[in-house]
Amino acid sequence: MSAATDARAGAEPAPALRRAVRGYLDHLTVERGLSPNTLASYRRDLDRYLDTLAAAGVTDLASVGAGTVEAHLARLRAGDDDHPPLAVSSAARAASAVRGLHRFALREGLTAADPSRDVHPPTPPRRLPRALPVADVVRLLETAGPTTATGDGAALALRDRALLEFLYGTGARISEAVGLAVDDLDAEAGSVLLRGKGGRSRLVPIGGYAVEAVRAWLVRARPGLVAAGRGTPALFVNARGGRLTRQGAWTILRRAADRAGLPVDGPDAVSPHTLRHSFATHLLDGGADVRVVQELLGHASVTTTQVYTLVTVERLREVYATAHPRARG
Questions:
Q1: In degrees, to the nearest 5, what angle opens at C-alpha 163 toward C-alphas 161 and 165?
Q2: CB 61 within 8 A of CB 18
C-alpha cells in the first residue's frame, strides 16, 4: 500500500458501499436461496473487500477499476498483518463474491460497467479422482451380498450386490442407476439405456458379473418386494417396494465399504462416485481409448474424461520409480 493508503487504513466504508453489499446479500438470500453458511462466508469476504475500498478512498462501486479488484484478490492470496494468506479455494470463493457484487451493481444500474469482468479467480489445483485397486473393488462387491440372511434380508442383499455390480460394470452415476426402469435393461444383449445429464441418453454394455447379479435380483428378490408396494417400473427398489433413492443407494455403498474394511470417512472415503472413477481408471489401465471411455461415461467433452488419464500416468510413475534400476539418482 502507498503512504496515502496506509493513512486511510481502518477507515469506515462509505454508506453507499454498505448499501450495495446489503442489497446484494438480500438478493442472494431471496432470489438465489443460498445457505446460511454460504451467505456468512460471502458477508465476510465482502467486508474485507469494503475495507480495501475504504483504504483506497473509494466511496462507491462506480469508482472501482479493474486494478483495484486485482490488487484486492492478490492481497488475499499474499496475506497481511491481520490476515493469513487464503488458500486457493477460499480465494476463489472470495473472488466469486466480489465479481457477483459487481455484476449485481451493473444489473441494478448502480454502475455503468463491471470492473471485475476480466479479473479471473485463482484456479484450485485439480484433484485426481479416487479410484480403488481392483482387489478392493472385488472385496467391496463380495461383501455386498448375498449373505446367510433370510426373507427380506436376503432379498435386499441380492439387490445390494446387483446395484454395486451394476455401478462398477457400467460406470453409471448413482442417479442414473436409481432412475432406471426394468425395461431399460436388455440382459440378453448385455446392454442398458442410461439417461444422463442434460437429457442425454446412451446405450452401454454390461459385463457378465453385473448381468448375473441383476438377473438374480430380478428373478429371486425384486418381485416379492415390489408386490409389497404400489408397483413400480424401477429396476432397483427399497424395502417397501418403492423406487430406491440416491440416499438409499449411498447408504448401501457405505455399508458395503465398511464391511469390506474400506474407509468411509476422511479424504479417501469411498464415495458415490468411487465405483465410476474406478470403472474409468481400470478401463484406461487395460488399454481402452479415452474417447471410448468418454462415451461410456456420458461426458459431453473428452476434456472431462482426460482427468482419468492423469490417474493412470501417476500409477505408471509409481511403478517406474520402484521398478527401474536407474529411476532414482
A1: 65
A2: no
Residue 191 has φ and ψ, to the nearest 5°, of -145, 165
- CA–CA gap between residue 41 and residue 47 (Å, rounded): 10
Checking DSSP bridges between strand 201-205 and strand 191-195, what pairing results, if any?
A: antiparallel
Angstrom distances, CA of residue 114 to CA of 13, 38, 50, 123: 20, 23, 16, 21
Strands 185-186, 201-205: pairing is: unpaired
What is d(CA 122, CA 246) in angstroms, rounded to the nearest whole number? 33
pLDDT digits (tens, 9 = 90+) for 17-36: 999 999 999 999 888 777 88
Letter for the amino acid at 256?
Answer: A
Burial classification of residue 201, based on how many CB atoms lie within 10 Å of its CB (0-12 exposed, 13-18 middle, 19 or more buried) = exposed
Cell of 188: 440378453
Give the model confidence (pLDDT) of 244-287 as tens digits.
999 999 999 999 999 999 998 877 889 888 899 999 889 888 88
Sign of CA dihedral 138, 139, 145, 146: positive
Supply angle C-alpha 58, 60, 61, rounded to 5. Answer: 100
Q: How far apart are CA 295 and CA 15, in angstroms?
A: 54
Give, in order, the Cα–Cα distances in Å from 219 to each of 80, 222, 285. 66, 7, 34
> Which residues neighbour 71 within 8 Å (Cβ) at sequence distance 6 or greater?
52
DSSP-derived letter for residue 177 is H
**What gap in Å lies between CA 272 and CA 250, rounded to an integer?**
6
Instruction: Name the residues annotated as catalytic.
Output: 173, 197, 273, 276, 299, 308
- Beta-bridge partners for 202: 194
Which residues, including other chains, have CB under 8 Å from residue 132's CB and lie 6 or more apart? 140, 262, 270, 274, 275, 278
